[in-house]
């Protein structure tokens, strides 16, 4: 296990894409401390900012306020990263495997365009959670993200596969332009949820303000949802029994586009 | 002063084919001999003039719009700052500085933008000011210019010619460019034209009339590169007949057909492409007034950008991808669409094979220039790959195995055994484009030529060799050494200033007052403010 402890509060963003199990594995303490990072616009070493304990391994623990540390675990394919504190932008972006646990809040673009693995955020997430970078044709494509707090705008935008669960509220344009996949929001959805939906599923437990290009289909109790919700219980989320046994109103859309997507709204009756 | 010794020199314009000899440089020019100064020992190396790219899209509003449109492309290719060079981004539409560095790092020292709307010439020059190393120039879009069409229709040939000269002067451009002549204007209201003899409604001219008139004007003005044509019906199955008609229209005058690969398809409109290169190449082979560049496609993701609005619309409809369309007042149009060429695709494989057929079927390398129509077919950084496909028959055979087998089997490509020699590569990448452009001081290493020299390490893998030159020398200064940039300089902007009867300005002024959003006085680009290093290319007529 490698433990990195932030030495002091950062005054500028630190781009630390090197904090990835794939890079750490098999390196000595000195080698890890010598890995290149960018502090503001200057080149620096990881060791300038972190106390490194334990040789490089696939299990990394980060401690301190890392809200300004960007690209943690970007592109990781294996191993485990645990952050005790906040994490900055692009956490786990383009990751392909492994597990990230954050006991704090994360910045924008967490899990953007990820292709596998799991991110569990115990605090809030920023904008573009599991989303697509500007211009990209695909956002998240496989993998799982759980946010116990709230998420910002454009969560799950242009998602292709995978599951995003937000226990709190989500901002505007949740699941916008989704191609497929599942986005579940237990709190409230912002405006224009599911705008431009091609396929895919948005699940929400409060009636959202739907776009006029969504149509009510029916009310039913989807079996796949029961499986997902039971699994989420095992992941440590408290899911009330009514959600599992209850009925959902299905709206299809977005009829501005293909219209094969769905928004499932928990029926409170 | 600089002396390059012991290198095998390939200088086709002076008929030097790999002869080991010295190249002496003084004051930015190739000279007979020098005393003192640095000596580069090029033993075992290959010495060529700097590369000349005669058809690319590297500056101006359409390139800049494509940059804004494709952040996803740029993200994949950051260009970090170094102590010498500026930061930027690469991929299909590199930023200005990266454009210059990448041309330089590949041994190219001259590049032309192939389509600048006259009204946006100022912008193109501003971007040129930020493209380091290479000498550059641009072609001015005229094929859908309303004033030109009106003058042709009215039979005012002299006035049209004077206007063309005025426009070249005003924009500080280099040549006349036509993009889908007549068709773009028609598409703005009534749909594209489909044959050369269809009337451009509202103007009383035909595409054929525009092509012929502008080609003659280019000759009469003694332009070093008279007319550069993007034919009608680009990318449409069956367009080869239009291309052949365009060639016939140029009977007796010089004309350059750009990216002919995109114009050489048989088949029914809307259907599968079939190669019609044999017929077209045969016509080019027997008509020395014609020159072409290929516009080779390579597989991968790139950005299509063109003055051909209807083409971009068609690509958008076929691919479903985002697009930009611009109507440039009174002058032309523009369209941009991202595009991915796939080796599994029947259509894309045919296009790829058609491009290679062109290189291998035109007998005289002096009349064909290497291009990918950057970035429409592929980025200019992939020229070395094209070179290897031409030089290495085995490599080409391996490549043929990876593409759509049905499509490639319908072309002549699998049967073409021709391999380009280094001498021929030196022609199609330097000597021929320089000659086609009428640049007497470029593309060769004779006495008095610009001292733009590229030195390669000899290597069996042509792609590797041409990707990373050992030295690149621009105007006598060593800029790239051992594959990395050692100095940043700025090249010159090449332009023409043909003479014309200034009486035409009265009429143009009136035209501006009536129809333009810009004042006549504000239109011309001021040489002293926008061209930091101008170089006028003479229009003497002896080219």
How many helix segments of chain B?
Answer: 19
What structural category characterises the helix and strand content of chain A? Answer: mainly beta
Mean pLDDT over the residues of chain A: 96
Largest sheet of chain B: 9 strands, mixed
What gross morphology of chain B would you assign? globular
How far apart lie the N and C ends of chain B?
30 Å
**Strands of chain A, total number:** 17
- Based on Cα principal axes, name the global outline of chain A: elongated
Radius of gyration of chain B: 22 Å
Give the helices and strands of chain A as they follow along the chain. Answer: EEHHEEEEEEEEEEEEEHHEE
Strand order of the largest sheet of chain A: 5-1-6-8-9-10-11-12-13-14-17-16-15
Here the CATH topology of chain B equals TIM Barrel
As residue ranges, the low-confidence spans of chain A are none
Regions with little confidence, pLDDT below 50 for 5+ residues of chain B: none
Helix content estimate of chain A:
under 10%
- Total domain units of chain B: 1
Superfamily at the CATH H level of chain B?
A: Metal-dependent hydrolases
Which chain pair shows the most residues in contact?
A: A-B, 5 and 6 residues
* Major beta sheet summary of chain A: 13 strands, mixed
Specify the oligomeric state. Answer: heterodimer
Helix proportion range of chain B = 25-40%
Descriptive report:
- The complex is a heterodimer of chains A (269) and B (543).
- Chain A has 269 residues and is mostly beta strands.
- Chain A has 4 helices and 17 strands.
- Chain A has helices at 21-24, 29-33, 223-234, 241-245, and strands at 2-6, 14-15, 36-39, 42-45, 50-53, 59-63, 69-70, 80-84, 99-102, 118-121, 141-147, 161-166, 182-185, 201-204, 215-220, 248-253, 261-266.
- In chain A, strands 5-1-6-8-9-10-11-12-13-14-17-16-15 form a 13-stranded mixed beta sheet. Chain A has a 4-stranded mixed beta sheet with strand order 4-3-2-7, with no helix packed on it.
- Chain A is elongated.
- Chain B has one domain: Alpha-Beta Barrel (TIM Barrel).
- Chain B is 33% helix and 23% strand.
- Chain B is built from 19 helices and 26 strands.
- In chain B, the strands form 6 sheets. In chain B, strands 1, 2, 3, 4, 5, 21, 22, 23 and 24 form a 9-stranded mixed beta sheet that branches. An 8-stranded parallel beta sheet of chain B has the order 6-9-10-11-12-13-16-20, with helices on both faces. A 3-stranded antiparallel beta sheet of chain B has the order 17-19-18.
- Chain A binds chain B through residues 133-137, and chain B through 69-73, 75.
């Amino acid at each position: 296990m490698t433990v990195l402890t932030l030495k002091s509060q950062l005054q500028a963003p630190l781009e630390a894409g090197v904090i990835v199990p794939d890079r750490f594995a098999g390196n000595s303490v000195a080698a890890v401390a010598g890995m290149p990072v960018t502090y503001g616009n200057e080149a620096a070493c990881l060791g300038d900012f972190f106390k490194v304990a334990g040789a490089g391994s696939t299990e990394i623990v980060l401690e301190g306020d890392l809200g300004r540390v960007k690209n943690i675990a970007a592109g990781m394919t294996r191993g485990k990263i645990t952050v005790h504190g906040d994490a900055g932008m692009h956490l786990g972006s383009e990751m392909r495997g492994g597990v990230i646990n954050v006991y704090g809040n994360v910045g924008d673009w967490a899990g953007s365009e990820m292709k596998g693995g799991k991110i569990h955020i115990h605090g809030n997430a920023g904008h573009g959670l599991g989303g697509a970078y500007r211009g990209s044709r695909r956002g998240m494509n496989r993998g799982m993200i759980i946010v116990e707090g709230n998420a910002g705008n454009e969560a799950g935008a242009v998602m292709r596969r995978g599951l995003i669960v937000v226990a709190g509220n989500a901002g505007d344009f949740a699941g916008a332009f989704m191609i497929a996949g599942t986005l579940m929001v237990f709190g409230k959805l912002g405006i224009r949820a599911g705008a431009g939906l091609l396929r895919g599923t948005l699940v929400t437990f409060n009636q959202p303000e739907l776009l006029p290009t969504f149509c009510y289909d029916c009310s039913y109790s989807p079996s796949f949802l029961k499986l997902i919700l039971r699994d989420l219980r095992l992941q440590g989320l408290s899911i009330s029994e009514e959600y599992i046994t209850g009925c959902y109103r299905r709206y299809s859309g977005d009829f501005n586009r293909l219209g094969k997507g769905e928004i499932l709204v928990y029926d409170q009756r | 002063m600089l002396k390059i010794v012991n290198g095998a020199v390939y200088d086709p314009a002076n008929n030097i084919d790999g002869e080991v000899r010295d190249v002496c440089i003084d004051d930015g020019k190739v000279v007979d001999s020098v005393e003192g100064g640095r000596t580069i020992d090029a033993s075992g190396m290959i010495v060529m003039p700097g590369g000349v790219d005669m058809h690319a899209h590297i500056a101006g509003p359409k390139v800049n719009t494509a940059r804004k449109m494709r952040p996803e492309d740029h993200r994949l290719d950051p260009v970090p700052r170094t102590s010498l060079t500026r930061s930027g981004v690469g991929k299909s539409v590199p930023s200005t500085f990266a454009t210059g560095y990448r041309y330089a790092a590949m041994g190219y020292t001259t590049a032309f933008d192939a389509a600048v709307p006259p009204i946006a010439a100022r912008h193109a020059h501003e971007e040129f000011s930020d493209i380091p190393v290479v000498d550059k120039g641009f072609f001015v879009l005229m094929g859908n210019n309303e004033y030109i069409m009106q003058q042709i229709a009215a039979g005012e040939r002299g006035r049209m010619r004077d206007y063309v000269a005025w426009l070249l002067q005003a924009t500080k451009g280099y040549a006349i460019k036509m993009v889908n002549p007549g068709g773009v204007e028609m598409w703005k209201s009534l749909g594209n034209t489909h044959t050369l003899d269809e009337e451009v409604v509202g103007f009383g001219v035909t595409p054929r009339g525009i092509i012929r008139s502008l080609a003659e004007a280019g000759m009469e003005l003694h332009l070093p590169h008279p007319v550069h044509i993007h034919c009608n019906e680009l990318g449409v199955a069956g367009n080869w007949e239009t291309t052949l008609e365009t060639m016939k229209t140029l009977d007796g005058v010089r004309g350059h057909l750009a990216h002919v690969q995109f114009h050489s398809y048989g088949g029914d409109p809307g259907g599968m492409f079939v190669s019609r290169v044999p017929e077209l190449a045969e016509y080019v082979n027997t008509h020395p007034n014609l020159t072409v560049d290929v516009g080779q496609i390579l597989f991968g993701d790139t950005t299509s950008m063109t003055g051909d609005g209807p083409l971009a619309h068609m690509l958008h409809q076929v691919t479903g991808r985002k697009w930009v369309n611009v109507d440039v007042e009174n002058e032309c149009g523009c369209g941009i669409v991202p595009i991915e060429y796939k080796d599994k695709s029947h259509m894309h494989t045919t296009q790829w094979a058609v491009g290679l057929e062109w290189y291998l079927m035109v007998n005289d390398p002096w009349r064909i220039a290497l291009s990918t129509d950057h970035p429409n077919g592929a980025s200019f950084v992939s020229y070395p790959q094209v070179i290897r496909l031409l030089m290495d028959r085995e490599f080409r055979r391996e490549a043929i195995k990876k593409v759509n087998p049905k499509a490639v089997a319908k072309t002549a490509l699998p049967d073409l055994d021709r391999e380009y020699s280094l001498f021929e590569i030196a022609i199609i990448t330097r000597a021929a484009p320089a000659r086609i452009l009428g640049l007497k001081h470029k593309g060769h290493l004779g006495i008095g030529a610009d001292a733009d020299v590229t030195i390669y390490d000899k290597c069996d893998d042509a792609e590797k060799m041409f990707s990373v030159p050992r030295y690149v020398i621009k105007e006598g200064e060593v800029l790239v050494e051992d594959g990395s940039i050692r100095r940043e300089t700025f090249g010159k902007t090449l332009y023409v200033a043909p003479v014309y009867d200034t009486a035409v300005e009265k009429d143009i002024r009136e035209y501006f007052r009536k129809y333009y959003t810009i004042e006549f006085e504000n239109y011309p680009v001021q040489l002293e403010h926008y061209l930091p290093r101008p170089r006028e290319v003479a229009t003497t007529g002896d080219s």
